[in-house]
Amino acid sequence: MINMxxxxxxxxxxxxxxxxxxxxxxxxxxxxxxPGYKAKDLNFEAYLQRSLNQEEGLQLFTTNERHIKESxxxxxxxxxxxxxxxxxxxxxxxDIEQEMGKLLQxxxxxxxxxxxLSREINKWKTVIKEGR
Amino acid sequence: xxxxxxxxxxxxxxxxQRVRMDVIxxxxxxxxxxxxxxxxxxxxxxxxxxxxxxxxxxILSQKIGQAQASSYGGVRxxxxxxxxxxxxxxxxxxxxxxxxxxxxxxxxVDIVTEMxxxxxxxxSYEANVTALNITKSMxxxxxxxxx
Lengths: 132, 147
Known about the structure:
The structure holds 2 protein chains of 2 kinds.
Chain A: H1 6-30, E1 40-42, H2 44-56, E2 79-81, H3 96-128
Antiparallel strand pairs in A: 1-2
Helix pairs in contact in A: 1-3
Chain B: H1 5-29, E1 45-51, H2 56-63, E2 75-82, E3 88-91, E4 103-106, H3 111-143
Antiparallel strand pairs in B: 1-2, 3-4
Helix pairs in contact in B: 1-3
């Protein structure tokens, strides 16, 4: 039988990702007039993969608790530079229209996932209350 | 990642755009100032932005794997510099600040440029307000999980 909270955990990670992405897009918009700033984004697969791995193990063996943990290896695949965009004269790559679009998409995605999560929780509530 | 990090990012941008707006207003107000405290005409001022970097502690904890991804600090005003372009020379011998040849140095402020920059600053401000509102709606949405 599957774990009762597996699905909830998955939704949690999806919400985590959208939350982080909102922060990154906000940062892009904040730096729309900063010379030399490069627009960033978040890689969904890498983020999900890594947050799933973190709980399931595959840790490096360490003989001392102060040894550097496996997850310390710099993982650049999570944050990606948005290379599709054209660079302006001041070497800034923020495209404000695209960023606003991404921001809206991300917030709708967040709303959707949190709605799903609420429904999942309500299902369990129904079970606990024996359908009453 | 903190709950209000995204709000701090957007509000840092609001502050930066506000400073920019202040400087533009100062430029427009002094568009005809032929003598400032140092005896020279007013020089146009330009705001330079830079990305606000995270603190050393944040980078360290990220490197030893305590944080999932780097956090962001938004934007800040790096400096307010003077535009080195030459003053506008206008022939007006009746002006009290005219030199012996009758020329007056006027500030290197171009009203049209300032107006365009002002519109840009106000649009950027609006974009950041939108980002702020979206973050707000996301936060209120999390409070409704399970309802």
